[in-house]
C-alpha cells in the first residue's frame, strides 16, 4: 500500500531560465496511490514444486507531461487507473534418466474490472477518455533437455508454448472485442570446455512480449474518433550470443559476450493517449564484459561493462536511432566483511548517453550514481547505515524529448528535453533480525 506526490519530468527550459529548480514542480497535483495484497501457497517434493497465488491490485496515477498544450484552459492533467484481481498456478519439475528433463507450465487469469484514462483538473475527473473491463487468460508449458555428449561438451534444447486469450468490453462498443493467439518459442544452448579454466558457449532463443489487449481490439481513437490500426497481440524477438568464460577457483571469474537481439516491433499501446502507436522492428548488437575478484579474505570486487548499438531496421524519415536506448553502461561494486561482524558495501553505476529522437540530433547526457553502506552484525541482529547518491549528483535519471506548453508560450508549444534528476543525497538506517 502506498501513496505519493511527484514532480514528474520537467522541461529543461524551466530550470535553465530559473523559473523553478531541478527539484521543483509545475503541476502540484501529480502523484498517485496503489494497493496490492497477495496470498501464495506452495506444495512439492524433490522432483517438482507447485505454486498457487492470488493478487488483488488497485492503482491510480495522476500525470501531466504537456501542461497546457492540448487544453490551454484546464491543462493536460490526466488520471490512469487499473483495478484487477489475478489468479495463477505454476508447476516446475525435473527428471534425471538418463538425461535431465526440466519441465513445467503455468496458467494465469487477470480479471480486470476497470482500466481507464480520464482528463482531470486538480485530481478531479472532468472527462472520461476511455474505460474498459478486460478478461485475460494465459497458459504456457515448457520442456528442456540437458545432456552431455562428451566430457567437454554440454548442450540443452528446449521449447515453450504460450496461449493467450482475451475479451475487452470498452466504453465505445467499436473498441470491444475478443481474440486469442499462440506462440512456440524454441531455444538452443551449447557450451564447450576448452581446458581446466575456460569455456566457450553459444546460445540462441526466441522470446516475446505481449501487448495490451485493448490495442488488439481497438478500431477508433477514443479522443478523435479517427480509425486506428490494431496491434499484434504477441511480438516475437530472436536473440543469440557467443561468449567465453574464464574462472580460477572461487576467487576469480570473467565473461566476455557478444550478443544480437532482433525485436519484431518496439512498444505499442500508448496508455497516456488511450490509443496505439506501432514502431518498427529493431536490432540491438553489443558486447558485455563482467568479472568477479575475491581480492583477499575480506574484500570482493565485481565489475561489468556493456556497449549496445540499437537501431530501427528501417528509416521511416526521421532516422533509425531508438529514443532512450542507452549505448553504454558500467557498474563497479565493492563488498567487505570481517569476522568481527563489520561489513561495508559500495556500488557505482554509470549510464552513457542516449538518443532522444530518431535522427540522433538531441541526446541525453551520461549519468553516474554512487551508493555506499555499512554496518555491524551481532548474533541474529544487524544494524546498517546507507547513503544514497553519495556525491549528490544532479545528473538525469530519465529524459525525453517532446513538445509542451507553459503559460505565455505559443499554441503549438515548445520542443524541449523533459527530465527528472537523480534523487538528492539521502541517508537510511535500519535494524534487521535474521532467522
Write up what this structure looks like:
The chain has one domain (90-113, 134-433): Beta Barrel (Maltoporin, Chain A), CATH 2.40.170. Helices cover 2% and strands 63% of the residues. The chain is built from 2 helices and 25 strands. It has helices spanning 12-16, 213-217, and strands spanning 2-5, 10-11, 31-44, 48-63, 78-96, 100-121, 124-147, 153-170, 177-193, 198-210, 234-248, 252-263, 269-270, 275-276, 282-294, 299-312, 328-337, 342-351, 354-355, 363-364, 367-378, 381-388, 396-404, 414-421, 426-433. It has an 18-stranded antiparallel beta sheet. β3 (31-44) and β4 form a beta hairpin. The longest helix has 5 residues, at 12-16. The protein starts with a strand and ends with a strand.
Q: Give a short account of the largest sheet.
A: 18 strands, antiparallel
Categorize the overall geometry.
globular
Distance between the termini: 26 Å
**Whole-number radius of gyration?**
25 Å
Fraction of helical residues: under 10%
- What is the succession of H and E elements? EEHEEEEEEEEHEEEEEEEEEEEEEEE
Structural class: mainly beta
Write the CATH fold name: Maltoporin, Chain A
CATH class: Mainly Beta
Q: What fraction strand?
A: over 45%
Tell me the count of domains: 1
Secondary-structure arrangement, i.e. CATH architecture:
Beta Barrel
Instruction: Work out the helix count.
Output: 2
Low-confidence stretches: 268-276
Kindly report the name of the CATH homologous superfamily. TonB-dependent receptor, beta-barrel domain
Q: What's the total number of strands?
A: 25
- Overall pLDDT score: 93
